[in-house]
Structures are given as structure tokens and as C-alpha cells.
Specification:
heterodimer, A: alpha/beta, TIM Barrel, eight-stranded parallel beta sheet, 9 helices, 8 strands, B: mainly alpha, 2 domains
């Protein structure tokens, strides 16, 4: 079963995970910039992190024959400090030409605050000025519905942004239609407790169709399962999906969205 | 899938989760002190679960969601607790 992991925070994972993912059929991994579990205190901390995402981590993945791509931003969890966010956003353009950078992400909201909104607007402007794809994080749990609505309105208010070049991640049953109806792509995150279970993700595919949806494990330093996508592929097969239909969702769909960035290619096939 | 196939595939899993939920509510009952707004929110969402409409998962999520539309003045903390305290006027526990 071949698949793309379009959202994995691999800097938090061990090489055992790389081995398992490639063994399970992973053909590429994409890593959005994330919160480290603590707030970085200076722009220089982000500079080093962006170097890790664009230089060190692709080399680590390449040892297992796995193409590694990245997205850059200051994560919404660190967006309350607008001055720091301005400094960080200021250094991102120098990283955009790097060969594995796909766009701006995962931007968005966390607690739906005014400062988070300002930083989101700054990121959207950055993406528009540099013709970048956008990957959006939507808030957790009780904050998701409100945050998704606010995010969609920010994106719609910038006429330079083409909806089909934006993926809104972590959708669930109460937000997926809002996202798809605006012309965006949606991402379903497969988590053990929060977000989507494999069964619910397949339910959403059954109900909404699989045209503009992908799935990801969003594996990070918290409770998460790096093999969540192939396990959900197995769930789809148990429910009668054909191998071709599973392939369309977990392999071809990510390629369709990500190939809008010319730097996305799978020249290095899995070993 | 037929309903029979869905039952064959998922009944035991749903049964397990249902008993876990019942045991959780019993555990809360056996506890001491006051419960915060999350218990009421969960009990309210059970009404959506008991409904006959097809979109139960969506309705449960909506009952647990913040329905307001204006950004908050400032982010207090980073985590979420799973239910919206606004309706009860209670203060959310810090995750």
C-alpha cells in the first residue's frame, strides 16, 4: 500500500518511525513548522528550526529513501507575541527558495485571539506575495468550529489567494463542509483520542466524497501514530473500498494538491 | 455497506465505548466535590446522541463547540479542554 504522509512532525520522531513508515509504503513525508512544546524566545530559535526543517531533516529522511518536504511559519500556538511573529515572518522569505519548501504552514489559529488573527493575516499576505501554497491548522476541540469560520473569512478576504491552493487541516464532521464549500482542500488528522479516528475519517469520505480530502497522522511529540494512514487504508479495505479507491485518497490526492508546488516531486522512490 | 455488515464490523467496538462512557459517569458520581461545566456539556451532548437524525457525530461536536464569532481579546494558555464553558458561565480549567 503506497501512501504520502502529508503532515508529520518528524523532528520529534525517531529513525525507527522512518523505517516503519517506509516499510509500510510511505513515498514522501511533508513536515509543517510546529510548536516545540515550549515557546521559543527569539527569532534565532526559529532560524535554527527552519534550518533543521530544510537541511538536516531531509538528509535524515533520505537515509531511508524517503523524500522530505517542509512548510514554514510561526505556529499559531506562538502567535500571541506579534512582535516576535513579525521578526520570524521576516526571515521566512530567505528560506522559501530551498528545494524542499512547499509553502507557508501550518498557519491558522489556536485560541482564536485577536493577536493570532493578526499573525494569520500576516502569513496569508506572505503567501500571496510569494505565490506560496498554504497549509492551515484549525484549533482543537471546542475552539475548532469558531476558529475554522474565522480562518475561512480571513482567507476569503484576500483576493490574491486561490481557494484550491489552500488546505485546511484537522477537519471533523462539523467543519468539513464549511471548508469544501469554500473550494479549499481538507485534511483529516488521525489521532488516538482527539480529532478523527480511522473509522470516522472513512465515514467522512463516504459522506463527502474523496475528491479534495487527504488524511495525515500529524505525528509529533505527543500521543500520535506515525502509521495512522496505512492503518486507515486497511480500515477502508475492510469496508469494501477497492485498492484503487484507497490509493486515490492516500496517495494520489496528496500528490494532486502538493504538485501545485513545482518543487514537489517523488524522484526518490522508497527503498 | 449493509447495516448487517456495519454491525459485524463495529458493534463490539461501539459496545466497548458505550460501557466505558457509562463507567466514566459512574466514576464521576463516586467522586467527591463539585463537577465543572464539562460534565453538563457531556450530558447535554448525550441528547444529540440519542436522536434519530443521521448526523449525530456532527451534532455532538456542535454541542461541545464555542458558538461565538468574535476573536477573544487574548489567548490565555494554549490548550483546549473539549467543551465550551460559556453557556454555564464557569471558568475553564487550565489544560
Amino acid at each position: 500500500m503506497r501512501y504520502i504522509e502529508p503532515h508529520g512532525h518528524m523532528v520529534s520522531r525517531t529513525t525507527d518511525d522512518y523505517q516503519d513508515m517506509v516499510t509500510a509504503g510511505c513515498a514522501a513525508v511533508c513536515e509543517p513548522a510546529f510548536w516545540a512544546g515550549f515557546d521559543r524566545s527569539t527569532m534565532h530559535g526559529f532560524h535554527d528550526y527552519f534550518c533543521q526543517l530544510t537541511d538536516f531533516e531531509p538528509k535524515r529522511a533520505a537515509r531511508y529513501g524517503l523524500p522530505h518536504f517542509s512548510w514554514l511559519c510561526i505556529n499559531p500556538k506562538e502567535s500571541e507575541d506579534v512582535k516576535l511573529a513579525e521578526e520570524v515572518i521576516g526571515i521566512i522569505p530567505s528560506f522559501l527558495p530551498r528545494p524542499n519548501v512547499l509553502g507557508i504552514g501550518e498557519i491558522g489559529l489556536n485560541k482564536n485571539s485577536r493577536n493570532e488573527m493578526k499573525v494569520l493575516e500576516m502569513h496569508v499576505d506572505l503567501a500571496a506575495r510569494h505565490q506560496q501554497l498554504i497549509l492551515v491548522h484549525t484549533p482543537h476541540l471546542e475552539d475548532k468550529l469558531k476558529g475554522t469560520r474565522l480562518i475561512l473569512d480571513v482567507i476569503r478576504s484576500d483576493s490574491r489567494i486561490q481557494p484550491g491552493r489552500v488546505l485546511i487541516d484537522h477537519v471533523e464532521e462539523h467543519t468539513v463542509r464549511l471548508v469544501l464549500d469554500r473550494g479549499h482542500w481538507g485534511g483529516m488528522t488521525l489521532y488516538p483520542v482527539s480529532k478523527c479516528s480511522p473509522a470516522r475519517a472513512v465515514d467522512i469520505l463516504d459522506i463527502c466524497g474523496g475528491d479534495r480530502l487527504w488524511m495525515n497522522s500529524a505525528c509529533d511529540w505527543g500521543e500520535s501514530v506515525p502509521l495512522a494512514i496505512p492503518r486507515t487504508g486497511l480500515e477502508m479495505r475492510r469496508r469494501g473500498w477497492t485498492a484503487e479507491a484507497v490509493d486515490r485518497v492516500i496517495y494520489q490526492n496528496p500528490i494532486r494538491f502538493l504538485s501545485q508546488c513545482p518543487k514537489f516531486n517523488l524522484a526518490s522512490e522508497p527503498v | 455497506m449493509t447495516r448487517q455488515q456495519v454491525l459485524d464490523l463495529y458493534f463490539m467496538d461501539a459496545r466497548c465505548k458505550l460501557i466505558d462512557l457509562a463507567a466514566f459517569l459512574d466514576r464521576v458520581d463516586r467522586g467527591t466535590g463539585e463537577a465543572d461545566f464539562r460534565l453538563a456539556a457531556l450530558q447535554n451532548s448525550l441528547k444529540a446522541l440519542a436522536g434519530s437524525e443521521a448526523s449525530r457525530a456532527e451534532k455532538v461536536l456542535l454541542t461541545l463547540s464555542d458558538p461565538t464569532v468574535e476573536p477573544v481579546a487574548k489567548a490565555l494558555g494554549k490548550g483546549a479542554v473539549g467543551a465550551w464553558p460559556g453557556a454555564s458561565g464557569s471558568k475553564a480549567p487550565m489544560p
